[in-house]
Amino acid sequence: MPDLNLEKYVEQESSDLEEFRKQLSGRNRIFKPNGREFFEEKYLPSKLHHRSNEIKKVLSVLRPCVDGEAPNTLMVYGPSGTGKTAVLKHVGTNLEKIGKEDNKPISFVYINCSTMDTAYALFQYLGNFFTDEDKAKIPSTGWPFQAVLDKVKENLNQKERVIILALDEIDRLVKKSGDDPLHTLLTLQCECTNAKIGFVGISNDLRLCENFEQRVKSRLAGVTLTFNPYTGDQLKTILEDRAKQAFIEGKYRENEIALCAAIAAKESGDARRALRILRTAAEICESDGAERIEERHIYEAKNSIEKDVIKETIQKLRDHEKLTLYAVCLLSLRKESITTGSVYGTYGNLAKIQGMNQLSPRRITEFLTNMDELGLVSAYVQSSGRKGRTKQVELNIPLKETVAILEEDPLIKPLRQKLHPRGYIEKTLDDVKE
């Protein structure tokens, strides 16, 4: 065996580490130590700017909790990033503290239905929230649903208390499992003896309850509260407050904060998006070695996030939805008017090539409506004179970028090679120009 020069190896490794240290120490810092935590989604500020009226309204609905009574049902609506979750968590956690001080137990239970979108997962979490004993816990799978419900009631009724149950992104639960879980949950309110349950639903969809069965709709007919998007000035206040907490003094200016707020206000009034732009701009600034956050960093951050959002949204689509979007892309190459009929025809060809069962025209129309809501396409009804009304479809996102993202997917990737010989594309994808 050849001799190993361990001393030389250790010396080289030490030299490499020193080089890393120099690069790290020489890096221009924008963030304070632990400053990034002020941009994390789990961070809940002690003061919620421009939401005092909403806090008062939520508090007025949930006030019976402090008297040991179940509050009225509350449905909270509004676009993403308007403070719905933050306000509910702020009020809920403070009511818990008041209940503890007054020896009147109040439990605030927050569940995000984007990760718990089945009845079993929802009730398993709810039942396990109120016990530390392993023997009383509900397993993640394997129990009959009635056994799960019985254990939930047993755990909830261990002592007298008021429970505020907040279901965020409730539309995700309904989309996946229908309104049966809500009916079961609302029935549980009546069946619990020691526990008094107040229900809060949070959703972006103002029309959520329209398609519920009457048995659910009537029980949700409590108080409704709608959150409006933030204005540019309001976002500026929020960003300034967060910048003071997260950034080193002198590393940002008011003009760049105002620009970031104006961009987010123009797009949607989404505070979450404004904060993401500001954090990304700061990280780009650090990477560039710039002395402070500049206008170009804000615009670069905006463009980077837009690409990431499009990619994340497309990747979350189901297989047949991806085929439908790919069909829209292929039709867009021809620069012709696109109808739901032509989308369905092209989708059908793609499904056959892949050996997949073709879904009904109605399902494809539902997919297009969903993609319209996500901002990927525009699907609108247009009058065609004597021919009646047809639904037109347009791609809302960059064509070439969309095709590139889709063709990274294992489902779509093989299609390009298969399509040319079969004649489904009149123009190669390499020729696409935005």
Biggest beta sheet attributes: 5 strands, parallel
Q: Output the strand order for the largest sheet.
A: 2-3-4-1-5
- What's the rounded overall pLDDT mean? 87
The total tally of domains equals 3
Please identify which CATH superfamily of the largest domain we are dealing with.
Answer: P-loop containing nucleotide triphosphate hydrolases
Stretches where pLDDT is under 50 for at least 5 consecutive residues are 421-430
Provide a compact summary of the structure.
With 434 residues, this protein is α/β, with parallel strands linked by helices. The chain has three domains: 28-42 and 231-313, Helicase, Ruva Protein, domain 3 (Orthogonal Bundle), CATH 1.10.8; 52-226, Rossmann fold (3-Layer(aba) Sandwich), CATH 3.40.50; 317-431, Winged helix-like DNA-binding domain superfamily/Winged helix DNA-binding domain (Arc Repressor Mutant, subunit A, Orthogonal Bundle).
